[in-house]
Amino acid sequence: MGFNVGIIGCGSITRFRHAPEYKANPFVEEIVFYDRNIERAESLAAEFGGRVAVKLDDLLTDPTIVAISDCSSNEAHHIHTSKALLSGKHVLCEKPIALSVKHAEEIARAERKSGNKLMVDHNQRFTKAHQKAKEIVEKKELGEVLTFKTNFGHQGPEEWGITKSNATWFFKKERSPFGVAGDLGIHKIDLIHYLLDDEIEDAHAFHGALDKVDEHGNPIEVCDNVVCVLKTKKGRLGTASFSWTYYGKEDNSTTIYCQKGIIKIYHQANSQLVIEMNDGTVTHYELEQIQTNDNQTNTGVIDAFIACIVNDETPPVTSREAIASLKVIEKILDIEV
C-alpha cells in the first residue's frame, strides 16, 4: 500500500537526495513538488515523473500526500514544517531544524499538538562506518571514550548549490546566519552526540570569514571557518573544525580516543573504519564510501523516514536531538538566547 509525498523547495538537496530516494522507495507512489520558482518544480517533476503544486497550500491540503520533506532554505523551516505538521502531514525537515532554538521550539510544539512524526535530516547517523563505530563505543570494546576530534570541510556551497554561484543564499546572513556551522558543523555535533551517547554542554570557538566573497567581491557576512574546543556532559573533551575553504579533497573524518585504543572514521578511502589498539593490533573495516558532493549515493534517510511512518515508530532523529545540536551551534557562535 503506497502513498504520495510532497517536497517543499526544489534546490540541489531535493534533486540529488530527496527526490531520487523517494523515487526508489517502494512505498512512495508519486512525488509532488512545490517551489516559489515554479520552473524549478516543473523541471524536477519532469525528471522524476511527479507533479507540481502551484501553491504551498495545494501541497498541504492534498489528502493523497501523507509525508512532506521541508527542503526550503533555513529561515523558512519553522514556518513550513510547523504548517505541514498542523496540516496533518508527517515531516522530514532538512537541517538545521531552524535558525534559533526559539523557532525550533515552535516546531516542536506543532509536532506535539499534531501528533504527527517529525524527523530531522542529520544524515551522518546513517552511514555504515558511523553505525559500526557507535556499536564499538556502546560495547566498550576499547574501554571508555576519553577525547575526540572531528572535521567537516569542503570547497564551499557555491560548488554544490543549484546556481553554482557565490550569490548563494548560504552566504546571506538573513537566510543562513550560522554560515559553515549551520551547513556542516551541525552534522558533526549531532554525530558526536550519537556516537558517544552524550551531549556537548560547553564550547569555546574561533570563527571568521577568512576567504569567501559574495557576488560583489565583498567578504561574506557569515563564517566560512570555525575551530572549536568542546566538553560533553560526561566529561569527554574534543575539538572540531568546520570549513568551506578546504580547497582540495573533502574531509569528513572523526577520531575517537579511548582507554584501549583509537577509532578512526573516514580517514582512509578504502578502510572507512580503522581500529588501532594499544597492543599494536590494527583492524580495517571496508564498509562504504562516505557520501560527498561529488559522490551522490543513497543516504538511507528517506528509507528510514518512510519506515518510521509505515511501522509507526519513533523517527531515528527526533526534534529533541536536533534542538540539542542547535543549542551547541548557538554556543559555538556565541549567539545570545
Helix content: 25-40%
CATH topology of the largest domain: Dihydrodipicolinate Reductase, domain 2
Proportion in β-strands: 15-25%
How far apart, in Å, are the first and last alpha carbons?
45 Å
Mean pLDDT: 94
The beta-strand count equals: 14
**Tell me, what's the shape?**
globular
Q: What is the CA-based Rg, rounded? A: 20 Å
Q: Let me know the CATH homologous superfamily of the largest domain.
A: Dihydrodipicolinate Reductase, domain 2
| Structural class designation | alpha/beta
Major β-sheet annotation: 8 strands, mixed
Low-confidence stretches: none
Compute the number of helices: 9
In total, how many domains does the architecture comprise? 2
The CATH class of the largest domain is Alpha Beta
Largest sheet, spatial ordering of strands: 8-9-10-7-11-12-13-14
Instruction: State the CATH architecture of the largest domain.
Output: 2-Layer Sandwich
Written overview of the protein:
The protein has 337 residues and is an alpha/beta fold. It has two domains: 3-122, Rossmann fold (3-Layer(aba) Sandwich); 124-294 and 316-332, Dihydrodipicolinate Reductase, domain 2, CATH 3.30.360. The chain is built from nine helices and 14 strands. It has helices at 12-24, 38-48, 56-60, 77-86, 101-114, 128-138, 180-196, 301-310, 319-332, and strands spanning 3-8, 28-34, 51-52, 65-70, 90-93, 118-120, 145-153, 200-208, 225-232, 237-243, 254-258, 261-265, 273-277, 282-285. Helix 4 (77-86) runs parallel beside helix 5 (101-114), helix 5 (101-114) packs antiparallel against helix 9 (319-332) and helix 7 (180-196) crosses helix 9 (319-332). The radius of gyration is 20 Å and the shape is globular. The mean pLDDT is 94.
